[in-house]
C-alpha cells in the first residue's frame, strides 16, 4: 500500500530529467524503485506497466497515470 504522498515522492525520484513523465529508461535506471512500483501496481515489468497504463505514445507514464494504476490495483491508501 502507498499513499498519494509516497507515490509523489517515488515518482519524483524516478523522473530523473524532471520532465513530468517516467520513461522506460528511467524505470530501468532505478531497479529498487521500479520494484516498488511493480509491486504497488501488480505488474511484472516496466514494459507491462507502460503498455497497460502509460497512455502516451512515447512509452512513458505520468503521475496521474501511475496513481490510477495503483488505485486499480487497490494499493492506494488515503
Ligand atoms: Ca522523465
Describe the overall structure.
With 78 residues, this protein is α+β, with helices and mostly antiparallel strands. It has one domain (2-77): Orthogonal Bundle (Recoverin, domain 1). Helices cover 59% and strands 13% of the residues. It has 5 helices and 4 strands. The protein has helices at residues 4-14, 24-29, 31-41, 46-53, 63-72; strands at 2-3, 21-23, 60-62, 76-77. The strands form 2 sheets. It has a two-stranded parallel ribbon. The protein is globular, with a radius of gyration of 11 Å. The model has no long low-confidence stretch (mean pLDDT 95). The structure holds calcium ion. Calcium ion binds next to strand 2. This is EF-hand domain-containing protein. Residues 2-37 form the EF-hand domain. InterPro entries: EF-hand-dom_pair (IPR011992), EF_Hand_1_Ca_BS (IPR018247), EF_hand_dom (IPR002048).
Task: Provide a quick synopsis of the model.
This protein is of the alpha+beta class and 78 residues long.
CATH H-level superfamily: EF-hand
β-sheet strand percentage: 5-15%
| Total helical elements | 5
Domain unit count: 1
In round numbers, the mean pLDDT is: 95
Low-confidence stretches are none
Please state how the strands of the largest beta sheet are arranged side by side: 1-4
CATH class: Mainly Alpha
Helix content: 55-70%
Shape: globular
Amino acid at each position: 500500500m502507498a499513499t498519494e504522498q509516497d507515490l509523489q515522492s517515488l515518482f519524483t525520484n524516478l523522473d530523473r530529467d524532471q520532465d513530468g513523465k517516467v520513461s522506460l529508461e528511467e524505470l530501468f535506471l532505478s531497479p529498487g524503485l521500479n520494484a516498488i512500483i511493480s509491486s504497488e501496481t501488480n505488474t511484472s515489468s516496466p514494459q507491462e506497466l507502460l503498455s497497460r497504463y502509460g497512455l502516451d505514445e512515447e512509452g512513458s507514464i505520468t503521475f496521474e497515470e501511475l496513481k490510477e494504476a495503483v488505485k486499480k490495483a487497490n494499493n492506494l491508501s488515503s
